[in-house]
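RETRY 2/3 - previous attempt timed out on the joint model. Re-submitting the same 1137-residue input unchanged.
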Amino acid sequence: MMAKSGSAANAPETRLEARKTYKLFIGGKFPRSESGRSYVISDRSGRFLANVAQGSRKDARDAVVAARAAFPNWSGATAYNRGQVLYRVAEVMEGRRAQFVDEVSALEGIGRKEAERAVGAAVDRWIWYAGWSDKIAQIVGGANPVAGPYFNLSVPEPTGVVAVLAPQDSALLGLVSVIAPVIVTGNSAIVIASEERPLPAITLSEALATSDVPSGVVNVLTGRTAEIAEHLATHEDVNGLDLTGAPGDLVTSLAAAAAGTLKRLWAPSPGAPTPDWLSVPGIGRMTAFLETKTVWHPKGQ
Amino acid sequence: MTVVDPRPAGERPTAATLTLARRVINSARLDDAALRGFLHGLPGVDEVGAKARAAGLATRSIKTSSKALALDLAISMVDLTTLEGADTEGKVRALCAKALQPEHANTDCPRVAAVCVYNDLVPVALHALRGSDVKVAAVATAFPSGRASRAVKLTDTAEAIRAGAHEIDMVIDRGAFLAGRYLQVFEEIAAVAEACRADGARAHLKVILETGELVTLDNVRRASFLAMLAGADFVKTSTGKVPVAATLPVTLVMLEAVRDWHRQTGIRIGVKPAGGIRSAKDALKYLVTVAETAGPEWLTPDRFRFGASTLLNDLLMQRRKLAMGHYAGPDYVTID
Amino acid sequence: MTHPAATSAPGRLALAERFLHYAPAPESRSIVDIRPAYGLFIDGAFVEGDGERFSTINPADEKVLAEVTSANAADVDRAVVAARRASERVWSATPGTERAKYLFRIARLIQERGRELAVLETLDNGKPIKESRDFDVPAAAAHFFYYAGWADKLEYAGYGPTVRPRGVVGQVIPWNFPLLMLAWKIAPALATGNTVVLKPAETTPLSALLFAEICQQADLPPGVVNILTGAGETGRLLVEHEGIDKVAFTGSTQVGKAIARAIAGTGTGLTLELGGKAANIVYDDAPIDETVEGIVNGIFFNQGHVCCAGSRLLVQESIAEEVVERLQRRLSTLRLGDPLDKNTDIGAINSQAQLDRIRELTAAGEAEGAQRWSATCELPERGYWFAPTVFTDVSQAHRIASEEVFGPVLSVLTFRTPDEAIAKANNTPYGLSAGIWTDKGSRILWTADRLRAGVVWANTFNQFDPSSPFGGYKESGYGREGGRHGLEPYLALATEVDAA
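RETRY 2/3 succeeded.
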């Protein structure tokens, strides 16, 4: 695509690049939008980068079906296994650093050094969350000393299918920072990529598709956030909604739409500053999409 | 007080079956309550433990001379099966030819144990297999669902017996079993067992539990015992017509049941996993499980069978591989 | 090839029995390269030690595998100094995220070199390859993977917001699970920011030395992990060294007590994982086939060289006869022999000394009047072997019911009521583990509440997981390894920091 960073010094100047087609990522496959639409993505100086698929209501519907189908096996996998898979994502991403740096640099309009820092932090973020897979239950679950001859244990469980509006600013680090906490606990996700900076999301999808992440656990839609989000916020088979990347004027209406099925919600507080994606996250993005189940059992001879 | 069973003799369990059943369940009465008391008094099966045991057995590494022996043993245990709506006389004749000489141009290869067909094709199979020791098995009792009246099921069986089938593979009424009507299941099996011996016939009865519909391993153990109480010669896992067919843990639990039945009665009942066993590697895992659970006495076609169709060709390919020292290809075994 | 189906019935049985006598299926030992001699691993490099050389042998054939070095006082000093330097200059200043990545690397390297480690472990220890391959090595990798994740999350572990590493840790591990015990020790120590000097057992040093190579491949900073080989004297020098901030020991209760005495009053932290004499309680409604499997796994896993082995079977009297009969039948299918054979269930006893100990205690069992039954199996001529053995008519007064055999020997006792089972189960100075078998959930929890043991398994036995704490009550030691709890011994907690 855009940069020449990878070309060898003595390669012929006339070598024409084979550009990548950026498509959606649904159920482990890379389809074009069923609507046939695409839109132009340019770098910060207005230079053409790619035509990106403009996902539709029906693409969102398909993504929900794929995410729901993936949920039983993914949530049923051992925490250890999910941790291994997330760590594998980090390994595979590390091998594509150059491409991510090119994309982040072009789309965010930042220098290579800063872009490299963001990409490195994105890889490390997968590792950070990989480590949480078999620990979150040890932090937010546990035995409860009830007053009676009962065993009583609370355990966290994933809520189900979660729709995530990725941040509009941080094309890769922000994206990873919202996907990883949702899926590490066993949820499956439908992610709407940053509307104007969607390229790293598709490149990330390619990493996910080759990392042992089961098909459908992460589904990535590119397109107009406002158009797609509405259908996910009202969808009855979606259990959670992360509004991090929602356009400011839509947060309230999307949250209200999500209330129709009482979706678990992560929404920025009104007037809150843009998150610093480089800082170490807390556990809130995980617990937002966890249910707590408490089991009682008598103890007797 | 003596109650006279009003049913015709053919539908009534024989006296010997009833006597044995009463002795085993230790009850003079044979009714749902007594059967329930016995079946639910059997030791439970811990699913996790049973699966772990099966997985452990599956790690046995069968090599060289043991593998050669096992492959031939497995071939000799195959019930080569075709149970399709589209079955024709030609298809059955081709299957029988394969049963008689599984390995192309090689008479050294063992024959399979039986050919298993729907009962209308029994005469075709019998004719094609005449003069051999390969048996003909017929599925009966409204296979595969078992949803028909007792009379229809018995007629179905009687037709197969009249046609000369050596073995009957019947299905139990899973609905009755799951609803706790154990006596109904018992009597139906006993009646079919009786039909297998009608008019001097001595057909072997395999009772299909359809374990994929019974779901729990506790149910598998209970249904196995119920079938044995009612006079089964074999307990068989599946019809092959529901999504979950034979699995190693299910077969393990059935082998434990026949082992315990033998310990209790001195009678050795056979086990037949059917459906879903496609590779020689899988077949070997089953043989290991048989040997280490029920014992070597069960490692014979009289007491262990594989209900399968595609398995045979993989066994043959592995046999070729052992004989030739290099991997075999599918173009060198026949497709029938 | 003959046609089995055409053979007569007795002929068929003979064929079947021939099949059951599985042909040898040995794992290739060429996958691992054992050097003729090994030095010590100090400050990131293999160095010649000052002490004597001794050999480590394969207990399955008594052949020498390699010469290793017995670290002396000067070597211990060098290693502790290196660890201190690494602690102060590098490791304590390495951010948790970066420590985590080193540990993830180590976990991956163990996975990558898994078969090599498994073969080496089996050669040096005598355990069956199926256990080293399917349990020891994957569990060791998983342990590093688990603690890697903690390295940058310590503030969430529940031990306060300002936790710090203790500094330099001295660790001494036993011969029964050499690599896994190494993982149990090193992974949490490094995750919490400590540096390590570790001594593997004298009869099983090789996997630890291969692990040293793995540390090199992972580019772990020099001095963060140091491996000293040697026997008890090296261990004593290490744990008593004044440069050690914390000691972790797994081994016998006798040595554990000696360590506790030696470091008393020094302020050195100590965790001990010692012996056990676990009760495995079988109620009359137990799922019988799985119970028999659990009893077998409980005592014959790793030749019974397991501190938490279910060595005292407590069976409800009404089913005792049936359980023993089923157990004996099952034991007759166990395969004893070449540990490298993939079908071997029971490998070699780790050493002559251990074999002597097992023989002494089993002889005492017979002398004291218990009924001995051993599975009939041919024992190889060379090497150290002991057939799976069950004692019935055992009472609490017998030595085999109270002393740890650490071998494939099961004592069967009976009980009549749940209360009696509890009383007998707890009637021991040990308290490492226990087992419960019943179909009734309520009874499991009631029983577990009353058992004085650090790990209680219900309807299973010998389960281990990096996320699950392990350790004993009473004379089985103190401190826990594994899980969130396994972090605590390696952390200087806030109160101590304030006091300092």
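The interface with chain B takes residues 1-6, 9, 12-13, 15-25, 130, 134, 285-291, 293-294, 333, 342-343, 439, 459-460 of chain C (CB under 8 Å). Closing ticket.
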